[in-house]
UniProtKB/TrEMBL annotation:
InterPro entries: YjbR, YjbR-like_sf, YjbR/MT2646/Rv2570-like. The keyword DNA-binding applies. This is MmcQ/YjbR family DNA-binding protein. Keywords: DNA-binding. The keyword Repeat does not apply. The lineage of its organism: Bacteria, Fusobacteriati, Fusobacteriota, Fusobacteriia, Fusobacteriales. One of its GO terms (molecular function) is DNA binding.
Length: 221
């Protein structure tokens, strides 16, 4: 089978949806088969638990691998095979994988907290900054959380390490108390009187972040 590279970048498997799509779990890998071009070809897809994906197309008449769809200058018959093959892969990606822009476990916990408590989803507003997102309160459409991927140097720390952070709203007096440039930082790219930045790396305990999310949500009325 042939490995497909960069097909599911920044995405994670939804194993339940794989099974609903028709994949079968065999020896820690998921397998799916379908027929192409009125049963003339059999397409097989293998997805491993590490998100690696492999495919193969077999000519059902000769029972031999069909590879002409892989050449760059396809035409006629091979182009038809490639189109059906590509359509199947796109359906699998759309139905069985979810976006995973943010990688840090803390960030995932924060996102789950927001989704479970407030039923709000991340919005990716900036094409040039695809790893930055906002969360709005439904009733007011106001932002109450901004999750960003930045260099620590942007927070005046002496390293270029890339980190995920969250910006949260609070009253001026509380922002002044919080800012210590160790756990709580002046808000990156936002009003520093009303917002602060927290690194999602374990520096601040999740329960404290959750409390501040709740405050920010209330201020977004």
């Amino acid at each position: 089978m042939r490995k497909i590279n960069n097909f599911i970048k920044d995405k994670k498997i939804d194993f339940k949806k794989l099974e609903e799509f028709g994949f079968k779990l065999i020896d820690n890998s998921y397998y799916y088969q379908t027929l192409l071009l009125k049963n003339q070809f059999k397409m097989s897809v293998k997805i491993n638990l590490d998100n690696s994906i492999f495919t193969e197309i077999i000519d059902t008449e000769t029972n031999e691998p069909y590879i002409l769809y892989l050449i760059e200058k396809r035409s006629g018959y091979s182009e038809k095979v490639y189109k059906e093959y590509s359509d199947i892969l796109e359906k699998i990606k759309k139905k069985c994988f979810e976006d995973e822009i943010f990688k840090a476990n803390y960030t995932k916990e924060v996102i789950n907290y927001i989704k479970n408590k407030y039923r709000d989803e991340l919005e990716f507003l900036w094409e040039k900054s695809p790893k930055n997102a906002v969360v709005r309160r439904k009733s007011s459409k106001k932002w109450y959380a901004v999750i960003l991927t930045v260099s620590k140097r942007k927070l005046n720390l002496d390293t270029d390490e890339i980190i995920e952070v969250i910006n949260l709203h609070n009253i001026v007096e509380e922002i002044e108390k919080l800012i210590d440039n160790k756990k709580y930082f002046p808000a990156y790219h936002m009003n520093k009187k009303h917002w602060c930045t927290i690194c999602l790396d374990g520096t601040v305990e999740l329960k404290e972040i959750y409390k501040l999310i709740d405050v920010s949500y209330e201020l977004a009325k």
